[in-house]
Amino acid sequence: xxxxxxxxxxxxxxxxxxxxxxxxxxxxxxxxxxxxxxxxxxxxxxxxxxxxxxxxxxxxxxxxxxxxxxxxxxxxxxxxxxxxxxxxxxxxxxxxxxxxxxxxxxxxxxxxxxxxxxxxxxxxxxxxxxxxxxxxxxxxxxxxxxxxxxxxxxxxxxxxxxxxxxxxxxxxxxxxxxxxxxxxxxxxxxxxxxxxxxxxxxxxxxxxxxxxxxxxxxxxxxxxxxxxxxxxxxxxxxxxxxxxxxxxxxxxxxxxxxxxxxxxxxxxxxxxxx
Length: 274
What we know:
Elements: H1 3-26, E1 38-42, H2 50-58, E2 65-68, H3 80-87, E3 93-95, H4 101-104, H5 107-115, E4 118-121, H6 126-133, H7 137-147, E5 151-155, H8 157-160, E6 163-165, E7 189-195, H9 208-213, E8 218-222, E9 226-231, E10 234-239, E11 243-246, E12 254-256, E13 261-263, E14 268-269
Parallel strand pairs: 1-5, 2-3, 2-4, 4-5, 6-7, 7-8
Antiparallel strand pairs: 1-9, 8-11, 9-10, 10-13, 11-12, 13-14
Helix pairs in contact: 5-7
């Protein structure tokens, strides 16, 4: 190869490397967490300072926030969460609710999501969320919100729905861990099953049967008043209690407290925690 040809080849390879680096920067590759955006996944119970964490992640009190209360048994007027957020200084809070899938698929209904910086999904029963929104424009707009760097938070049912496998999805009884027809979550945290209220309801090992049936899943069990902040493949624990990470059906559980971090992709303590 001539010197000129070699130079051109080097320039060509450098251009490919630069383009690849730029593409990875714009579309980072992750194995579990969202490539863009942030998740706040709360184990239920009293929120306390976790509301301030949510508002900080959302970009402050002026950010547009949408509250989705559909997991509740009934939604009569504004959900109490809107008042809580306003009391803490949020000034642009909107409620979004329907049980009509055709409405959930409409552009007009989803309009608030397109300008929102953050979304909060309240507690209740997670099957109501999938019946209303799974596979609709609402779910696609939530994914788009994350893709533009937004924040999705939720507690209890609003936590479990963020996993890919929906535990306790049975409309009959929330003690049923696997319910055919209600086993798919929104999948913001991929290849995962998320449980909540672990400490107060004696659920420390309830995820084991799910993981034996679906061994590719990462199990995440959250105490009340406790959360993980997920950015990319890293989860940081915040709050009062513990978070249990089950990397495999029979593997030892990793129990983390506030300030500790877990690598969701590698399924081990992150280097920051070690």
